[in-house]
Amino acid sequence: MLTELTRVDLSSDPDYSYEEMGPSSLSSPLSSDSAFGDQLTCSVELCEGQACEGCQEVIADRYFLHVNGACWHTDCLRCCVCCSSLEQEESCFVKDENIYCRRDYISEFGTKCSKCYRKIQATDWVRRARENVYHLACFACDSCQRQLSTGEEFALSGDQLLCLRHYTSLVEGDTDKDSELSSKPKAKRVRSSFTEEQLQILQANFRIESNPDSQELNRIAITAGVSRRVAQVWFQNARARQKKQQLYSSQSSRSINSNGYSHGQWSSGSEGQLSDSPSE
């Protein structure tokens, strides 16, 4: 709250009046005395015999200061931040019963620019966007750095202030990117390759148990030198091939061809390949 400081002479007539003070809009240059003040009417009463608001001692001095209904010794009225005397000041600020000089009040509670984060002075022209306040020069597109004019369309995207052209480009760019991502073909899965020794270990264990449990599968994977996931997939594929082979063999047994060939023998040379070999 902004309030006038009144120097009172107890030897003179105390009955005099003061001008009403109120806030100014931040949308225009601010008056030097009412930038952050609340509406306030000051009146003076004789403080003779009253206690000082600061030191609580009775005021016996000829001169004292009258602030927001309270009386102060001239040396007791000081800024609570910098402790500078306010005796020679024309005004001070009161907030939560604390006294501030103008500089420290603005530093503590003054409005800050949403772009540069510096304090907005009482004489600054500003622009507003939603709850944000900007210096006139700071109200510019974050993409092209062009200062935006009165009446011009703009957009706030998160913390970004954008002119209409760059906001449109941003939106269309995101749409194009989404389209590109959806049109890209899915990456092919990498096929695992096995050494002859690894295949022999896997096939030998498959002949013992085609569907090992988790613990046994871990042991087989460690023995073969492959990951558990790779071993699991190999056994799944091997069971599928075995089932297919059994179905094929069942059909072939009903119609053996005239050349005496049998079908569905395992090949030991590659991973799970089926080969047709002449019967002895």
From TrEMBL:
GO terms for cellular component: nucleus. Keywords: DNA-binding, Homeobox, LIM domain, Metal-binding, Nucleus, Repeat, Transcription, Transcription regulation, Zinc. The keyword Glycoprotein does not apply. InterPro entries: HD, Homeodomain-like_sf, LIM_Homeobox_TF, Znf_LIM. Residues 187-246 bind DNA. It is found in: Nucleus. It comes from the Eukaryota. PROSITE patterns: HOMEOBOX_2 (PS50071), LIM_DOMAIN_1 (PS00478), LIM_DOMAIN_2 (PS50023). SMART domains: HOX (SM00389), LIM (SM00132). Residues 13-32, 245-280 are annotated as: Disordered. Residues 264-280 have a biased composition (Polar residues). Its main location: nucleus. Residues 50-111, 112-173 form the LIM zinc-binding domain. GO terms for biological process: neuron differentiation. Residues 185-245 form the Homeobox domain. This is LIM/homeobox protein Awh. It comes from Magallana gigas (Pacific oyster). The lineage of its organism: Eukaryota, Metazoa, Spiralia, Lophotrochozoa, Mollusca.
